[in-house]
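Example is below:
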Amino acid sequence: MRKIALAAFLSIVLIAFTTSAVQGISVGVKKGDWIEYKVAVTGDMPDHDAQWARMDVVNVYGSVLNLNMTTQFTNGTYLYENITLDLETGQLGDDFFIPANLSPGDVFYDAHAGNITITGSEQRTYAGVERTVLAGHTDVTTFYWDKQTGILVEAYSNYQNINFTMKTVTDKTDMWQPQTSQLNMLLIAAALIAVIAIIAVAAILYWRKKGHGKQ
């Protein structure tokens, strides 16, 4: 009886731990989000001569993301892929996504590279907007992820043994929009005031002229 009770208790603890782990993974994107990248390479590595890429989030189920990936190569051809990632199990592709809202010192798991530590946080501008980004490193790649969404915004890979480098930088996205600058807002306001003033003056002159005409 005690063995049964102990087994039941351990099962409850295991379920609670698993649930807690899943809830601890924060996914910062939703269905319909998309992002585009410009890619620059030097040297020659098979299947790595990309010049542009786009990711579309098809669905999000808990920690699982379904993506459509489109890659354009330097010869003009395209590759279309359906990709499934799981932030909980570390299936991150080429570290396209990490859990959202991590901080320096936090560690996440990559099934291919092992544990990766967030080494820093800074402000950088991507797709026309200043964002808070997180840095992390593997043996060959330095990554920058958008903190709020967890999505990759820049990566630089250097394979010294084969003299090959690849730089990937965010070009466009619908996840954040460039904000109209304060100067532009002032110019727009000034233009509106000028238009209103011209209309008001024209209206006054018209009614004055009309009034004199009646006399």
Q: What stands out?
A: The mean pLDDT is 83. The chain has two domains: 28-173, 182-215. Residues 182-215 form one domain.
